[in-house]
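A further point concerns the way the authors explain their paired sequence and structure data. Each protein is reduced to its one-letter sequence and a matching series of backbone shape codes. An entry of this sort, consisting of the sequence and the corresponding backbone structure tokens, reads as follows:
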Amino acid sequence: MCFFRNSPAHDKMANAVRMLSVEAIEQAKSGHPGLPLGAADITTVLFSKFLKVDPKTPKWFDRDRFVLSAGHGSAMLYALYYLMGYKDISIEDIKNFRQIGSKTAGHPEYGHLDAIDTTTGPLGQGITTAVGMAIAERNLNAKFGNKLCNHFTYTLVGDGCLMEGISEEAISLAGHLKLNKLIVLWDNNDITIDGRVSLASSTNQIKRFEANGWNTIAINGHCQKSIEKAIKKAQKSDKPTMIACKTTIGFGAPTKKDTSGVHGAPLGAEELNGLRKNLKWTSPAFEVPQEILNLWREASKKAEKEAAVWKENAKAEGKTFNDIISGKLPKDWEKDIEKLKKQAIKDKTKVATRKASNMCLEAIVPNLPQLVGGSADLTGPNLTSVKGMKVISEKDYSGNQVNYGIREHAMGAIMNGMTLHGGIIPYGGTFFVFSDYLRPAMRLAALMEQRVIYVMTHDSIGVGEDGPTHQPIEHLASFRAMPNILTFRPCDVVETAEAWEIALTQEKTPSILALTRQNLELVRTESKENLTAKGAYVLSDVSKGKKRKATILATGSEVSLALKAQAKLKEEKIEVAVVSMPCMELFERQTPQYQEEVLGNAPIVAVEAGSKFGWEKYVGRSGDIIGMDGFGASGPAEKLFEYFGITVEEVVESIKNTIK
């Protein structure tokens, strides 16, 4: 119960948010009016009185971050940004809600508007991304101090966000790390699409958060004073805080409020007219009285001076800090990688590519202060940590390694939050087969064009005895089908180093490094040019003056197998070329002329210890694919390759049959 009457100014400001939201939804004939109507009091207090942002400098680094985890309520977010006076959103954009090419998409999309801090939509991703932002804030605060990085991360979540399993991983890690600059506002309206929450859940969310080490506050989510008091208390907490805001979904709607019917469909003309009467809103559609607009625009100025002071502080701090927060890599960061490649060629280094990746990290980490790595409790098998790395903990946030625990779902979204926050380039490791757990976050990283690096080890049936549950089969094909993500499967130390170089320089693309458990021979003999950057290249051509009879196209552990097959075929006077294709996506970016030079016009046999799906476009009807048609099996790795017919002998036989 609210014992205080809201101020007239607050009610007017909140009702402006409500009406712009539902009018946009009504015009689009699509959207979710329930959350904007119910949560408008919460966001009005937060945005007008607390949120440290400056619409004149929307990308100010030390601004507070806001994540609408319940992304279906996007109309409310657009209304808030318009009312606050952000320059890149107009009333026409509000009217164009959910239309093709509109900035005001059906769910908040990063890059469409300057004020949007992340793309949300898949429930649970938002709150977990916010945890990543909060980790980044504490990390950079520990490194650079309060003058340069000292802000809050707020996220508005719904029942759906908290039901999704990823939220448990997120809140448990946040509680463990005592991320006290993270504040979760729960729109506790007790309604989901199917009806009352009680149909599917009886979880006491307050006790759940408390059990995970959070501070919790329960309030009336329509009471201005209660909301203000709770946020002030949360800001002083030594733990992350969850504020349970009891609200009425569809607040003000005469017949649909407090029902699932107001969740995901326009109100309709009759209900909208009833809402207008209940809110005493007399302005025409999409018109906000100047008095109310002035209240919002004045409130949006509260952090202007802080933004100006920060700008001077950042200027005084110098180039290193500003390069880090802008994502620029230091000069000569790759110098030790070049040394590593040359030494590996000299020594003919034979290691698993997961070990090669670890060698790369030894050369990279000391030269990249913004690199933060971790693993989902597989640091040893993934080899994601090197000497000198320091774990980020609740006692010291200044490190460059995160112990994610067995939380792959959360690790993916947390890394998104880190890179979106700025100042951090994240990488995270797990077994490649468990990329299934990260996939929603990886897809969002690709959609948002974020530089995130996934170290995915144990990349094939070469995992061996752990069996088919741990052997990725369809994963390479599935990620190659995903837009804007680079999937690398390097064949030795040199290709692994080249893949790391490319991944770190891709400012708008995430990258997967699919790495072997088993040792691989070094096959590269020079490193003057980053050949992996071309996606594919002729690793071993036919003898001088001879005509190419066929091409063996291979990746990763199968490249050395292809070279052995080439040698056997040569003994039989059959000249074939071996093409290594560490990154199919990069090869597709090359000119048709280069692609033709590499692939040639002779029959092609592709070999990869994974699904055959996707290789058809290279081998055509006249070629062959040696790979997997089903799942793997448990047994020693070398026996498995024999059992599934991924052998030198099989490649030789395939070439002979293909060129008949």
